[in-house]
Specification:
heterodimer, A: 74 residues, alpha+beta, two-stranded antiparallel sheet, 2 helices, 4 strands, 19% helix, disordered C terminus, B: 411 residues, alpha/beta, five-stranded parallel beta sheet, 7 helices, 21% helix, globular
């Protein structure tokens, strides 16, 4: 899957880090760092991270071949 | 979705804000394909409320509605500007203000909260004394924030603090009145509260603690001119804001038979309870209005007026409605945030229940704070300012503690 985060929107709420720590974390200055192409095994967690972002800064694009119970990416 | 005799065919969501919208989204995502009606008292599609006390107030020109995106495939019937006034859980109907009866198989109570009102026994409020909850409130308040004016904000909680900070950005003289010894004392304790107090004062806000407002002065035609304080002093004021806290919006449920105890009393699966403690079939609650037992609180019930809580409870409420025979308890770790004077306040857990605060870092000049909250020696929450990175470890620990005390997910 592919992830993009609009860093102009990100306000370092940390909700994505709580939901998917394998994908999202902060640097020493509380700026978000993330794996832009994580394993599809993390799709559900990553979708959850996008859903709980108060700034709606995270966009997840699933690979067409990935199988998941998660709702369609938006 | 597996269909069973108890699967609802029609669902009504009362409340068209974050919790209502996210429950609707979750219902569709979890396979619900029946009819979906969303009732809202305001004439707007769902909008984002956190900016109402921040960017909407500081914007140099009036801002457009902070609309929330509507997910594809929602296929909902919107009943906006039509407040619900009654619920009959045995007949399964919701009555709207114009008398329309809306029948349902399943219903979601997501009416949120309202601003705590000035005591009714007091004299009526003059013009220019506002509250902030909805979009129209924010538009009206923004219009009062004219540079050079004198604003009195009554209540230094998160909302009052953010309004005071926004008014300073707009160039007003701001006095912030707080009855306790520190702002936010009940919510996050003295250490974080005094840190916030220092930030307010540094920003030029005249913060007065241990003080209450006993009355208002007005012109002959009823416009505010001043505020009378409990220390018998008078404050001239061109406008004032009441930020006295939020009250769950349950007036419309008064004669429904549902247990109302500072919110809709729910079981761990978010099912609304009757006064005799039994769960109402096909009726759940989510968001600010729901009072739910939480494992971190020793299973005592809490209401959580926070953005993330509304989002997480929405998914649980949808699951309970669609799978009444296999509900899962709601046990999300609470979290909340506030942005004050450019500093990011972030918190997890239930700091308000703590009996002890431990300070890991306290740097007022660098605007960095890290405190953890404990009850009976055990972690129950944490708060950081400018140190969000440190919060994840606390959140993980709270999750582990929750999982250790949670009941099995059976009913």
């Amino acid at each position: 899957m592919q992830i993009t985060v609009d860093m102009n929107l990100c306000e370092s709420h940390g909700q994505c880090v709580f939901a998917a720590p394998e994908v999202f974390s902060f640097d020493d200055e509380d700026y978000l760092v993330y794996d832009a192409a994580p394993s599809d095994a993390l799709l559900d967690k990553t979708m959850q991270a996008a859903a709980v972002c108060p700034a709606r800064a995270i966009t997840v694009t699933a690979n067409p071949t990935a199988t998941t119970d998660a709702p369609a990416a938006q | 979705m597996s269909t069973s005799p108890t699967t609802p065919r029609s669902i009504v969501i009362v409340g068209a804000s974050l919790a209502g919208l996210r429950t609707a989204d979750a219902l569709r995502a979890q396979g619900f394909n029946g009819s979906l009606t969303i009732i809202g008292d305001e004439p707007y599609l769902p909008y984002d409320r956190p900016p109402l006390s921040k960017d909407v107030l500081t914007a140099p020109t009036p801002a457009p509605l902070t609309a929330l995106p509507l997910p594809d495939g929602l296929d909902a019937r919107w009943q906006l500007g039509r407040p619900a006034v009654h619920l009959n859980p045995s007949a399964r109907t919701v009555t709207l203000a114009d008398g329309t009866q809306v029948p349902y198989d399943g219903a979601v109570i997501a009416t949120g909260s309202t601003a705590r009102a000035w005591p009714a026994r007091r004299p009526p409020l003059p013009r220019g004394v506002l509250t902030l909850r909805g979009w129209q409130d924010a538009v009206a308040l923004r219009a009062e924030l004219i540079p050079g004016r004198r604003l009195v904000v009554i209540g230094a909680g998160f909302l009052g603090g953010e309004i005071a900070a926004a008014a300073r950005v707009r160039g007003l003289d701001v006095t912030l009145i707080e009855s306790a010894a520190q702002p936010l004392e009940g919510a996050v304790g003295t250490v974080a509260g005094s840190f916030v107090a220092a930030m307010h004062r540094e920003a030029g806000i005249d913060l007065r603690t241990h003080t209450t407002v006993s009355g208002f002065h007005a012109t002959d035609d009823g416009r505010i001119t001043g505020v009378h304080l409990s220390d018998h002093s008078e404050l001239p004021a061109d406008a004032a804001v009441l930020a006295l806290g939020a009250v769950p919006a349950t007036d419309w449920l008064a004669d429904s038979g549902i247990a109302l105890e500072n919110g809709v009393r729910c079981d761990p699966y978010l099912r609304a309870l009757l006064t005799d403690g039994t769960a109402v079939p096909g009726l759940v609650a989510a968001g600010d209005v729901a009072r739910v037992p939480h494992p971190l609180a020793g299973d005592t019930s809490v209401t959580l007026g926070h953005w993330t809580n509304a989002v997480e409870q929405a998914a649980s409420a949808a699951h309970t409605l669609l799978h009444p025979d296999e509900p899962k308890p709601f046990n999300g770790i609470p979290s909340f945030w506030s942005d004050l004077h450019g500093a990011r306040i972030r918190s997890v857990g239930l700091p308000g229940l703590a009996d002890e605060t431990r300070i890991a870092e306290h740097d007022l000049v660098g605007r960095r704070l890290e405190v953890s909250y404990h009850k009976d020696g055990q972690l129950i929450g944490a708060l950081t300012i400018g140190r969000t990175r440190r919060l994840a470890a606390y959140q993980r620990e709270l999750r582990a503690l929750r999982d250790a005390v949670s009941h099995p997910a059976t009913s």
